[in-house]
Amino acid sequence: LINTIGVPFTYENKQYALFIRPDIRLLFSEVHTILGGLMLTMTVLSLLGMLLFAKALIRPITQLTEATHQLAYEKFDTLLEIDRADEIGQLAVSFNVMTEKLQENDRIRKEFISNVSHDFQSPLLNIQGYVDLLKNPLLTDKERQEYTTIIELETKRMSTLTKQLLLLTSLDQSTRLLKRESYRLDEQLKETVRKYRWQLEEANVQLS
């Protein structure tokens, strides 16, 4: 210690030392300096610990915010990799479950649009094909009547598809309606051949 005098002495064959400080105020000054240094060190360490804790807390929230922005642009393949046992971890698990459901709904939506487009395209092609056949001046009245009937049936088919589409859009997703009907396969095959007869005639294909 600064400003301290040490005097050795012997007592009962044992060595001792006696330290004498002329000014006791210097002792308190050094103690204050040591305590101040300890407090400053503890304050710095506390701030560093708080910063690290805040960073660890904010990082998953930042990831969640970024993933939410990705969902806004219909990027449903965004999953959070947050392995925590607290509320933030539970929120990440719920977010991933929601993302997977949105991804599945998006797949079903695209598949539905593709199927609807195909279902509408088929009668339109048939109508266009038989309209072209009706332009032939050599057709008999029976053939004209048959082609006109097919066009009318295809028009009704499109109307039915439109009504079914409107019904589907008005139903709740959790609702499932089942309506069973009996069909004769032979009649279905005959109807299909009759609808696409114009394509067979254009290709010079004869069915027996």
Main attributes?
208 residues, mainly alpha, two-stranded antiparallel sheet, 7% strand, EC 2.7.13.3, phosphorelay sensor kinase activity, histidine kinase
Notes on the protein architecture:
With 208 residues, this protein is mostly helical. It contains five helices and two strands, in the order ββααααα. It folds into two domains: 67 residues; 122 residues, no CATH class. The chain is 69% helix and 7% strand. A two-stranded antiparallel sheet has the order 1-2. Helix 1 runs parallel beside helix 2 and helix 2 runs antiparallel to helix 3. The chain is rod-shaped and about 145 Å long. The mean pLDDT is 77. It is found in: Cell membrane; Membrane. It is a multi-pass membrane protein. One of its GO terms (molecular function) is ATP binding.
Topology (SSEs and partners):
Layout: E1 5-11, E2 14-20, H1 24-72, H2 87-134, H3 141-170, H4 185-195, H5 197-202
Antiparallel strand pairs: 1-2
Helix pairs in contact: 1-2, 2-3
EC number: 2.7.13.3
Catalytic activity: ATP + protein L-histidine = ADP + protein N-phospho-L-histidine
Subcellular location: Cell membrane; Membrane
Distinct helical segment count: 5
The parts where pLDDT drops under 50 for at least 5 residues are none
Distance between the termini: 119 Å
- Indicate how many domains the architecture comprises: 2
- Beta fraction: 5-15%
Question: Radius of gyration from the CA trace?
Answer: 44 Å
User: How would the global form be characterised?
Assistant: rod-shaped
How many β-strand runs? 2
Strand order of the largest sheet: 1-2
The percent range for helix content is: 55-70%
Element order: H for helix, E for strand: EEHHHHH
The secondary structure category is mainly alpha
Q: Which sheet architecture does the biggest sheet show?
A: 2 strands, antiparallel
Kindly state the mean pLDDT as a whole number? 77
